[in-house]
Hints:
Chain A is an all-alpha fold.
Amino acid sequence: MQSKLMAPRNGLLSRNLAALDALNETSTRLNAQADPDVQLMLAVQQGDQAAYHRLFEKHVAGVIGFAMQFVGNRARAEELAQDVFLQVYRTRLRYTPRARFKTWLYRMVTNACLSELRRPEHRVHVQPLDPPSREEIDEAAASSEVRSRSGEEISLDREAVDRLRAAVAELPAQQRAALLLARVNGLSYDEVAASLSCSVSAVKSLIHRATVTLREQMRSDAE
Amino acid sequence: MDHCRAVKREFIAWCDGELSRREAERVEQHLAACAACSAEAESLSVAIRWQRQALRHVTAVADHECAPLQARLRRALATEIETRAQGQFWSWIFRPVAIATAAAMMAIIVLFSVLGGPNAVLIPLGVEAPPVAMSREPDLFENYQLIQRLDAMENFDTVESVPLDEDQVLREG
């Protein structure tokens, strides 16, 4: 009797869930359509090479900066960025705007970086070789000084940035990727999950551990 | 204490604005009531803001530094487009040849199957030599194909052998 009563309710529930999924899908597609980069990518799909070069100019620095944290040197990071952008061009006809362009792009970049790390020659300590210039750091230090309500203050000087760079290089690759995607590239946890092909709760955990590790590392270095 | 531990796991997602409204309210209610967690949340919030700024400098690449890469990419892309166009050209060139070859093969197979084997085609064309018996008595085998089709000759192999002359026939009765 109970099962007879439950059956229609379960049917209704599954229909509601399916409707909710469809609504989410539609909403995601609408959000994606609003992304100017998606419009550029759709233009690339139609054969507009100028749109492709605009996408490249807009994202290449971010992609190189991200890749450098995995491959450890500028030249290899550039090669990797070139491969990724060629892949963007090659797969343009199969592209469907299901999410922001950045999510799609960084999924490719992250896969390329993590594959690169699996190669035997990269199973060594990664140390970025090309840090930003002195001027860039000084400029940053002048403009950014974070102060909390309790008066805790951390300045952004060259040494601190170098220590942070070293600490980031020590993070496990998945934590590093999740942290950089969220904090530097501005992806939401949902988008990071899509880029890393994992669940949102896994992303939450990865970012939590990475943030706490970096904070402890910076504190211990400062002491 | 367990509640503190559970809420602490949500602090960073809360600072990043990644919690649902209900989850965020739960965290905020706890922070309002727990001084230790409030201090921890404040410390993490500072760390996150600092990391966000500092990480941008860690990964900073100036736009002008990307110009050589853009030039390389343009070249690579041009090569790719050219290679693809050449591939399409050759596939277009070879497509009629492939279609003609396939059609000829199909025609040969159909011809052989309709006429009763390769010899039915190859012997008239002079490519294959006819059986000795046929060459000796061409009149007898004028309608050979018809006979073969009607399956009148059960022992086809005897056609291949040399026929007996008249003396042998008389001797053997």
